[in-house]
Amino acid sequence: MGEDVKVRYSDSDLLEFKEIIQAKIDRAEEDLELLRSSYKNGADNGTDDTSPTFKSFEEGTDTMAKEANMQLAIRQEKFIRDLKNALIRIENKTYGVCRVTGKLIQKERLKLVPHATLSIEAKRKQ
User: Are 95 and 89 in contact (CB under 8 A)?
Assistant: First the structure.
């Protein structure tokens, strides 16, 4: 009983996860850029030549689209932050360990949700 074995993923596993996460961060940052530019440049869609009766309706739609994109951008920023925190856990070699049970989170789960900090078991108990 006395052996104090640290449960963790091997360095090669961690390296593999790091590559997956880094690729996701790169993609997420590109998406975020697109979202940001869409709600910053969304003001002028070249609708000046359309009939004035539809103008207010279109502006309402523009505003809704802009707000939706801002919400998506906020969610994307959180996703990127979660992924970057996962990279920190990889550096600390604590990545992939459930913060509730202390057991390893299944590889399949981490590949789907690389920023997960809970095992399925712990998530179900929530």
Answer: yes
